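Example record for the data management plan.
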Amino acid sequence: MTSTAEQVDRLASWETREARLHRVLPYVGLAVGALLTTVAPAPLGLPLAPHLLVAATAACWITWFVSLHPGWATRHTLMVVYYVGLLALSAVLVLISPWYGFFSWAGFLHSLLLPGNWRFAGVAASAVLAATAQGGGLPASVSHWLLWCVLVLFNLGAAGGMVWFSTIADRRHANRKRLVEELAEANRRLAETMRENEGLHAQLLTQAREAGVTDERQRMAREIHDTLAQGLTGIITQLEAAGQARDRRADWQRHVDTAVALARESLTEARRSVRAVRPEALETARLPEALGELTRRWSTINEVRAEVNVTGDARPLHPEVEVTLLRTGQEALANVARHARASRVGLTLSYMGDVVTLDVRDDGVGFAVTDSPAPRRPDGGYGLTAMRQRVAGVGGELAIESEPGGGTAVSASVPAHPGGAG
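Corresponding structural encoding:
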């Protein structure tokens, strides 16, 4: 299939050859007329010098207006002046010698330089000159006049038809050239747009890759905090308690066994976090049961009274929503164990239409809530930040209320997106 650039080049090449032909043919006709007039002069012809002088003038006239200044072809007034001069010189030469009828055909070719309907006026005048040359000069008798009229009509019809079809072809050619140029411009813009899109695509891929890396780092940071960090904290707590109970064999063994169980559980959860698998508690139970088991184990380990209440109609939620609420409850309990010195903790899971809320309240020492996005505990931990990120990640909100000596309340409200049962 021919490309747009090849079509443009082909049209330009054809225009160049056509323009060159129109420039050369008048000189050829002029040379043929001059040669024949010199070799076989007309019976009533003038001497050699005058017709050669007029022929040279005609050659200079064409050279100046057409050959040396091809750009003048678009200047309509100037072309009318040129064509009138060409007709005048052709008439003189035809009257000098009919052999210059070969040159008079230049009028048909160069009539295309005239604007609009002026072309047909030029064709009519050139037809008269050509018929005069073909008839051997001006008519001198009735039969000669009849022959002259026939020749005029023939030349007028032939040349007029040629100019008519040439005019139509020029219009089609101009339209086609314009369409080809517009298509080439559209292709150029399309190519530029594609290059810009490639750059934008590469930029978006880079941004998506960076965003994916950032999201994965944040996910791993939260998972490590929820599994390894909390597990290690619990292990350290149990080992410290075991160290204080060396003289009490039963208590010492209980703390050591609890530490071993926490280590195994933390290892399992860490492996599941790396594979981005849901917590084991949600694989085998629904969210209320998982929170209840989490709370009972936490209460046993930390020797703090804790209970779970469920309000509303419990129903399966989207896995990510259930993981978020479970991890929020886990982190809130871990904070109570580390900081609150509480004697009682209550968890309330509320199913309320299109919202599910988890509230964790304790009667511990509390702390002063600041205006910062994540109120900081004395150890500057990551827990509250992780909770906020998790809850915000599913379109929810996290609220914290606390004051020194007044305990702490953590409330996570998330959309109740439906999902399969846990």
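Summary line stored alongside the record: Residues 373-381 have pLDDT under 50 and may be disordered.
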